[in-house]
Amino acid sequence: MKKEEVASIIHNDGLENIGDSGNQLLKWVTKNNYHISGPMREIYPTDPNDSEKSLTVELQLPVNQ
Asked: Region Disordered: start and end of each range (predicted)?
């Protein structure tokens, strides 16, 4: 298995405003001089069918310096 460094953010506000969290993650990566090394990923630690309002999503962005 290949090791990979990622920047991540946890979004707990359903899917409606998930783009705002993605933008915060991108700003942090840029501000801290990281370089994006792959596409953003969404990880759903809870079942997305349970309730969209209480959905938790981890956004991960592969990075390197």
From this structure: 44-65
